[in-house]
Amino acid sequence: MFAALAVSRWIEDRTGWSIRKFVRTARRYRTIEIQAGTHTITAADPPPDDIRDALNRIHHGPGAH
What is the dihedral of CA 15, 54, 50, 21, to 10 degrees? Predict the structure, then answer.
């Protein structure tokens, strides 16, 4: 439980979003894996700008673009 709270706060600090907004926004983005014989194909739309920007801030820190 403590780890989840720590990660939530870290995401909020990095993105400037509430954890609720982050989860609701990220929930819209999905990928699909398709098995074609021995090959696995991943189908996904590029993430929307708001999600991509939030993920960049999480990965690279505040002020990242």
Answer: -50
